[in-house]
């Protein structure tokens, strides 16, 4: 079976992918290949970060590999927080602080349009591929719901009456940025 590394330390993402990737690949974690590196994510785009992580593994460990990066892009903030979504409120701050900063910056703003965007970079042999998944929506004025993580309590997908944090994991995965990017990756791998 072909071995493929998912360059993530997030066990939740890994087990989700293991369930859907199909029988033709053995999906390995960074731990499985003995990689305990603090892989740099210093690019200023989602594409750059995803590529940086996938290349790190391919170049140092020799495995075919894919890596993802996600950001929340808010129109009224010129696309911020974008690639800086995880550390928007500064190093050591959590999702609550990130959401509080976002809501404060959007105080009084009528244009609440935003999107989550995920980019997956795959390096297979000597080929590199990028897969993108987007979900459009808007930023609510107050957080609601307790499911999910990150900015889920303040993000309402287009056409929905609730935030991502009020949805079940299956409801979210069916339309989410990551779900869509992963579906493209899997369709390509199973071609
Ligand atoms: P990552 O690239 O998946 O680690 O995501 C970077 C940051 O984007 C996370 O730390 C979260 O703040 C935010 N984020 C990514 N995916 C989601 C999501 O599905 N819901 C809410 N926030 C997310």
Order of helices and strands: EHEHEEHEEEHH
Distance between the termini: 16 Å
Q: What ranges have pLDDT less than 50 throughout 5 or more consecutive residues?
A: none
Structural class determined from secondary elements: alpha/beta
Using only C-alpha atoms, the radius of gyration works out to 17 Å
Instruction: Indicate the mean pLDDT.
Output: 95
Largest sheet: 7 strands, mixed
Q: What is the overall silhouette?
A: globular
Count of separate DSSP helical elements: 5
* Ligand roster: inosinic acid
Which features characterize this protein?
single chain, 191 residues, alpha/beta, seven-stranded mixed sheet, 5 helices, 7 strands, globular, binds inosinic acid
Describe it:
With 191 residues, this protein is α/β, with parallel strands linked by helices. The protein is 30% helix and 26% strand. Strands 1, 2, 3, 4, 5, 6 and 7 form a seven-stranded mixed sheet that branches. A hairpin with a 6-residue loop joins strand 3 and strand 4. Helix 4 (169-175) packs across helix 5. The longest helix is centred in the first third of the chain and has 16 residues, at 46-61. It is globular and about 55 Å long. The two termini are 16 Å apart. The relative contact order is 0.14. Inosinic acid binds next to strand 3 and helix 3. Residues 69-72, 85-86, 95, 98, 116, 148-152, 164, 176, 178 line the site of inosinic acid (IMP).
């Amino acid at each position: 079976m072909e071995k493929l590394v998912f360059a993530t330390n997030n066990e939740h993402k890994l087990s989700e992918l293991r369930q859907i990737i199909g029988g033709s690949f053995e999906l390995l974690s960074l731990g499985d290949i003995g990689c305990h590196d603090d892989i740099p994510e210093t690019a200023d785009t989602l594409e750059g970060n995803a590529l940086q992580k996938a290349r790190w593994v391919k170049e140092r460990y020799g495995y075919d590999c894919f890596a993802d990066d996600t950001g929340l892009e808010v129109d009224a903030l010129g696309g911020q927080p974008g690639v800086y979504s995880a550390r928007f409120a500064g190093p050591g701050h959590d999702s609550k602080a990130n959401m509080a900063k976002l809501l404060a910056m959007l105080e009084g703003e009528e244009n609440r349009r935003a999107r989550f965007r995920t980019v997956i970079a795959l390096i297979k042999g000597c080929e590199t591929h990028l897969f993108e998944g987007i979900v459009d929506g808007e930023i609510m004025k107050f957080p609601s719901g307790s499911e999910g993580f990150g900015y889920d309590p303040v993000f309402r997908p287009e056409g929905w009456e609730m935030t991502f944090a009020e949805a079940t994991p299956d409801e979210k995965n069916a339309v989410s940025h990551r779900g869509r990017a992963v579906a493209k990756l899997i369709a390509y791998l199973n071609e």
